[in-house]
Write a structure and sequence with these properties.
Belongs to the class-I aminoacyl-tRNA synthetase family. This is leucine--tRNA ligase. It is a single chain. The chain has 7 helices and 12 strands. It has 255 residues and is an alpha+beta fold. It has a single domain, classed as Valyl/Leucyl/Isoleucyl-tRNA synthetase, editing domain (Isoleucyl-tRNA Synthetase, domain 2). The strands form 3 sheets. A 6-stranded mixed β-sheet has the order 6-4-5-2-1-12. Strands 7-8-3-9 form a 4-stranded mixed β-sheet, with no helix packed on it. Helix 2 crosses helix 5. It starts with 6 loop residues before the first strand and ends with a strand. Bound molecules: ligand A2H. Ligand A2H binds next to strand 2 and strand 9.
Length: 255
């Protein structure tokens, strides 16, 4: 953890019924995978939800309304000290710990996404030392997300290894949501091709692609979709963040 507090937006990705076996005791409740993001303005482009298959997660009651968040234990402890916890400083673990792998293939609702629902898929680079251990995937604008999704699409053996069905992966194409001059409207793909990122394990090439996409997208990017279409990313970002919070589709989380 850094010296400065980091403020994330947690996107509430509601788990749709029928629940995966591990969540069956929670049937009938509002259960969310809470994905930590620094880029709320990109939520129009969500295509899936990432978890660490070998990571450890729990289901925690997070407010007086009985909402349940699936996050790491570390994130649950931090959440319990933030304003919307039912009892200050106290976590209420309903289920867990269970491995991320138990969530693979769950269908979730992704707020603002053009896909009606998306699926939970594995990402090996998720660490348990920041955010919630849940990451939402925006392959149009995140080289990490683009390459991890491409790996699953291009490698049937990788899908088989994790027991993933083709229909959880193959239909989900990156959505053009931000136009960047000279890079087009799928800047993560453009940068991964330019820097020859051939797998999510090409860490050096991936780092270069990420630097370019983040800088260019934030300062020169223009939104293509939603109520702020036509506006610059850095202008639209706080507005879309607030829209997600007002709709009840996101909460603020710091650590
Ligand atoms: B971002 P920082 Cl479109 N392990 O959201 C690995 N990555 C994690 C994580 C974890 N435990 N928790 C969050 N993240 C990702 C969107 C996005 C993100 C876009 C572009 C860049 C980007 C969609 N994925 O992040 O280390 C989440 O992915 C660039 C850094 O705390 C989160 O925002 O600075 C970001 O990394 C938080 O990273």
């Amino acid at each position: 953890e850094g010296v400065q507090p980091q403020e994330y937006v947690l996107i509430k990705m509601q788990v749709l019924e029928p629940f995966p076996a591990v969540l069956e005791p929670l049937a009938g409740r509002r259960v969310y995978l809470a994905a930590a993001t620094l880029r709320p303005e990109t939520m129009y482009g969500q295509t899936n939800c990432w978890i660490a298959p070998d990571g450890s997660y729990g289901a925690y009651e997070v407010n007086a309304d009985g909402d349940v968040f699936i996050v790491t234990e570390r994130a649950a402890r931090n959440l319990a000290f933030q304003y919307w916890s039912p009892v200050y400083g106290e976590t209420r673990c309903l289920l867990g710990p269970f491995p991320g792998a138990a969530l693979l293939g769950a269908a979730v609702r992704a707020p603002l996404s053009s896909y009606e629902h998306v699926y939970v898929l594995p990402m090996l680079s998720i660490t348990s030392d920041k955010g919630t251990g849940v990451v939402t995937s925006v392959p149009s604008d995140s080289p990490d997300d683009y390459r991890a999704l491409q790996d699953l699409k291009e490698k049937p053996a990788l899908r088989r290894k994790y027991g993933l069905r083709d229909e959880w992966v193959l239909p989900f194409e990156p959505v053009p949501i931000i136009q960047v001059p000279e890079m087009g409207s799928l800047s993560a793909q453009a940068a991964c091709e330019r820097y020859r990122v051939h797998s999510q394990n090409d860490r050096d090439a991936l780092a270069k692609a990420k630097d370019e996409v983040y800088l260019r997208g934030f300062y020169d990017g223009v939104l293509l979709v939603g109520p702020h279409a036509g506006q610059r990313v850095h202008v639209a970002k706080p507005l879309i963040r607030q829209l997600l919070l007002d709709q009840g589709d996101a909460v603020v989380y710091s650590e």
